[in-house]
């Protein structure tokens, strides 16, 4: 597929703050969604059809997404957070349960546990992949542990084999937060196909989008799929009539005692609970699903573009001392949702000074993404100790920064970033050496 086949609909901003004197050369985002005539046509078709929700586009999108992930079931939702919430309810996670989880994630992954009264138990990350470190999970397991929630950070899947082994040994569910990884692979297996459930995001900044919001649950488990299907849509169910056989004749019509042979009796559906969990309206609409079908067709191409740019940057900066490019696990097909670069203070580069120079002197806009989830004010109240996950804390507060990455970047954008990284690293190192000479800097 040629690049020109996919014209993005957005444009690049030229400044992040009009009054800070910086002209942006490579902004962090707002490169626009990768829509073209196909999406435009699909939106109009969906808009004009009678069924605006629960219609043919949803069916098709779910089927094709399941095919892409190589799973039995895919169930669309309004976003990844609602997908994960329905998944959490389907697992039966409740007040007092514990779930082992990475601190390197968006709040959504913990939020769905907190909403059900469960306690997220944070387990530290691997310093190279920034994913949950399987070696540290087992020591966090208690009799209250019900599940492990992993996040495939930045586009690269976690080391799933040891995680699944631990889960099997202790009879725990595994949820894969795949918000960053549609189309990613681990040992040839697709994201969302290894744990009990996978949950995807189609937010506008993700690798594929359904008009800015959207989500999907994937699973191979029939029972879980049926629960999620109910929980995302009000937990409605068909009426169950034990009297079905108990019929009688009235004025020439065969009726049951409850009158179910008439279409208006009883009301359309029953409402049930799933082990005390009540339903939600977490549905995706037909127009979003129609766009999802188009986006799915170009997902491979969009992921390849991200990989091409990410790898180009990796290669160009790999020898800069104190700068760690993206690490690709040889077991994984990385889809570069993020380009996370680390700066290493021990090797003479200080993160905030480096970012300042990149931004102010080169017009490149890096950002920091998260912080350890347990540091948010709301979660601190729950009594998490400081230094709970030292590798994650060092990653967030000393090492990481995220550079722009998008299928619509150009080689020229990448070259600006590469040049900026080289110059900024050199400048920070020199400044630190000077300060060191005068005994002014200590890490
Ligand atoms: C790792 C992760 N999980 C979940 C979410 C939530 O996705 P959504 O906005 O679709 O609810 C995000 C969103 O950025 C995310 O990055």
Descriptors:
Aspartate Aminotransferase, domain 1, binds pyridoxal-5'-phosphate, single chain, 3 domains, Aspartate Aminotransferase, domain 2, 17 strands, disordered N terminus, 443 residues, 7-stranded mixed sheet, alpha/beta
Spatial sequence of strands, sheet with the most strands: 1-9-8-5-4-2-3
The biggest beta sheet reads:
7 strands, mixed
Radius of gyration, taken over Cα atoms and rounded to an integer in Å: 25 Å
Q: What's the CATH H-level superfamily name of the largest domain?
A: Type I PLP-dependent aspartate aminotransferase-like (Major domain)
**Count of domains:** 3
Order of helices and strands: HHEHEHEHEHEEEEEHEEEEHEEEHHHEH
Query: How would you classify the quaternary structure?
Result: single chain
Tell me the number of strands: 17
The number of helical elements comes to 12
β-strand amount:
5-15%
Structural class: alpha/beta
Overall mean pLDDT score? 92
What is the structure about, briefly put?
The chain has 443 residues and is an alpha/beta fold. The protein has twelve helices and 17 strands. It has helices at residues 37-48, 56-69, 80-90, 108-115, 134-137, 160-170, 222-231, 286-317, 351-362, 377-380, 390-399, 411-437, and strands spanning 73-77, 98-101, 119-122, 145-151, 173-177, 185-186, 189-190, 197-201, 215-219, 236-237, 247-250, 253-256, 270-271, 323-324, 332-333, 339-343, 400-403.
């Amino acid at each position: 597929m040629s690049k020109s086949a996919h014209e993005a609909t957005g444009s690049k901003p030229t400044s992040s703050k009009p009054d800070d004197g910086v002209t942006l050369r490579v902004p962090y985002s707002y490169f626009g969604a990768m829509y073209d005539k196909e999406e435009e046509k699909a939106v109009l078709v969906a808009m004009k059809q009678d069924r605006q929700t629960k219609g043919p586009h949803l069916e098709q999108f779910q089927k094709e997404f399941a095919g892409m992930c190589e799973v039995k079931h895919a169930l669309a939702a309004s976003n990844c957070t609602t997908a994960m919430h329905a998944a959490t309810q389907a697992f039966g996670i409740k007040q007092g349960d514990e779930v082992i989880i990475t601190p390197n994630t968006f709040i959504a992954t913990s939020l769905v546990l907190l909403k059900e009264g469960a306690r997220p138990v944070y387990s530290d990350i691997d310093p190279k992949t920034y994913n949950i470190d399987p070696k540290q999970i087992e020591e966090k397991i208690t009799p209250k542990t019900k599940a492990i929630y992993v996040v495939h950070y930045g586009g690269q899947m976690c080391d799933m084999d040891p995680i699944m082994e631990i889960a099997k040994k202790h009879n725990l569910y595994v949820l894969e937060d795949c918000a960053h990884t549609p189309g990613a692979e681990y040992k040839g297996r697709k994201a969302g196909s290894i744990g009990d459930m996978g949950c995807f995001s189609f937010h506008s900044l993700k690798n594929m989008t359904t008009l800015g919001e959207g989500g999907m649950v994937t699973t191979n488990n029939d029972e879980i799929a049926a629960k999620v299907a109910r929980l995302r849509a009000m937990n409605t169910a068909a009426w169950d009539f034990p009297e079905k056989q108990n019929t009688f004749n009235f004025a020439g019509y065969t009726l049951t005692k409850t009158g179910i042979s008439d279409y208006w009796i009883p009301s359309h559906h029953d409402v049930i609970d799933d082990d005390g969990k009540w339903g939600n309206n977490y549905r995706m609409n037909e127009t979003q699903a129609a766009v999802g079908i188009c986006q799915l067709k170009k997902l491979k191409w969009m992921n390849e573009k991200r990989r091409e740019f990410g790898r180009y940057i990796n290669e160009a900066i790999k020898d800069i001392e104190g700068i760690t490019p993206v690490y690709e696990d040889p077991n994984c097909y990385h889809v570069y949702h993020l380009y996370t670069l680390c700066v290493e203070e021990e090797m003479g580069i200080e993160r905030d000074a480096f970012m300042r120079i990149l931004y102010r002197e080169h017009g490149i806009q890096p950002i920091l993404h998260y912080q350890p989830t347990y540091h948010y004010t709301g979660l601190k109240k729950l009594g998490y100790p400081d230094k709970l996950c030292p590798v994650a804390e060092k990653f967030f507060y000393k090492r990481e920064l995220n550079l722009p990455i998008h299928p619509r970047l150009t080689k020229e954008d990448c070259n600006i970033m590469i040049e900026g990284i080289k110059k900024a690293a050199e400048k920070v190192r020199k400044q630190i050496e000077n300060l060191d000479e005068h005994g002014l800097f200590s890490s």
